[in-house]
């Protein structure tokens, strides 16, 4: 059967079924969605179903007011107002009353097209100019009548590929629910989704031969019939990569989730594009394919990429009353050897810590979801609890179990020579770390949805002059919830539990004990000051930790916001935290300045369990990102 004969029979079949009382009508597409909004300085004199707009006064032209009545549904009313040229052109007044009336008549046609696109095919619009009023009042009265319903959606395949298995047949798969309002958006979207589904099932060259929309004014209904030629099933052809300058093509090919000769699926192209963009190596990723199959029934694929700059530098600073000022600098190379290897050099210079660290990540080690991690750091820390030099090393594997879960396993090594109340002690520590993390939050620095869970367990073996054997475990929880639809209010909470087993507090290296207090812990108390204290109020640390926090985050404008919070917790000499003992509590408030790279925060914390000679009336903190 030829395409022409098939189409003719299809047309006759549809016409015969819908003859008599039915009327053939063109589908009105809601072009008004792209129309501009009313002028910013147009004043609303009255709100509700009949809104009156007072347009800005100008020297030249006929001044007028607009009243649109008869529509109580707010989204529909807003759509009509955004499509009305009486409103959108209100800053350009018509020169004469005749021109104003012409504009009003044009609005009647435009608004009727909008109403038809929303399923109101029997709606009527009247206009009237009240010329005696100053300014002239233009009244548009809408009579909606019954909203038409979509009662039928038929899909017909003919010619090449019409008998292929798995062709979409059910309109539900296209997002169409029979009986729903006959909106243009539904019909247009269904056609788009039908072609996408066909491309996902091996028919990327499917063609729409005809689509008919029939409106029946007798029973307020709409029927849609769409006629397609799906085409022969396509296979993935050879892949050609263009635009790669420093990233190895073999590395790029590792992200391609198909092999030549497999059935074509459009979703695999989207999957590959997303994976490549997530590497951070590319500014743009696109696929091109021809509009016909080759002799083997394959579609050759061309991958077009544009690389990003692979080197970057970063600077940051923070300041608080307890830790003083600190500056940080970072240099990063994200494609060191041409396969996405990432090297980061970080430096910190502060009053309590000076550190230089190098971090290396080798992605996709022996698998697409597994990375090699190596890092080393040289530091000097000078806190109220201890001071001295430290050298840290770590080597391990990070594996992504799911999109939200990842695990890390590796060996931390640390050499320290720290001075605390027990004198100067040298430690050589060797550990085995296991860490699991789940992160469903929607933003790294400013989340308002999702949660975070992190659990780590590390047994250490200490050799040399100070032999120790202990195990440290830490559990961290955080959750975020936007209270209102506009996301102006967010509730955030966190908890942190820690425990160390195997050695007494005195035997543990000073930097492996738990401490609390400070901007990242219990705000309002000095850094490390919560917990057992020794001579001169020197923090002793402990073998266990409990911290809790709750915040109400408020976003006032796009760039300004605030927060009120309560923090609590304590450090214990016992290996397990005891919530029944008195917790140290603090309350506070803060401001937020939102930038493109994250919020800048200023927090003021006030201790509620203030201790003489130990705690100040207030602490404040300035840094980047939310507190947790």
Folded structure, characterized:
The protein is mostly beta strands and 628 residues long. It has seven helices and 29 strands. The protein has helices at residues 3-17, 74-83, 85-88, 97-117, 184-200, 249-253, 266-278, and strands spanning 23-24, 43-46, 51-54, 64-69, 124-130, 136-143, 149-157, 207-216, 221-229, 235-242, 282-288, 298-307, 311-320, 324-333, 342-350, 353-362, 370-382, 387-400, 405-420, 423-431, 433-439, 449-463, 468-482, 489-501, 544-555, 560-572, 584-595, 598-607, 619-624. The strands form four sheets. It has a 17-stranded antiparallel beta sheet that branches. Strands 2-3-4-6-5 form a five-stranded mixed beta sheet, covered by helices on one side. It is globular, with a radius of gyration of 34 Å. Mean pLDDT is 90; it is low at 1-36.
Map the helices and strands:
Blueprint (H helix, E strand, L loop, with lengths): L2 H15 L5 E2 L18 E4 L4 E4 L9 E6 L4 H10 L1 H4 L8 H21 L6 E7 L5 E8 L5 E9 L26 H17 L6 E10 L4 E9 L5 E8 L6 H5 L12 H13 L3 E7 L9 E10 L3 E10 L3 E10 L8 E9 L2 E10 L7 E13 L4 E14 L4 E16 L2 E9 L1 E7 L9 E15 L4 E15 L6 E13 L42 E12 L4 E13 L11 E12 L2 E10 L11 E6 L4
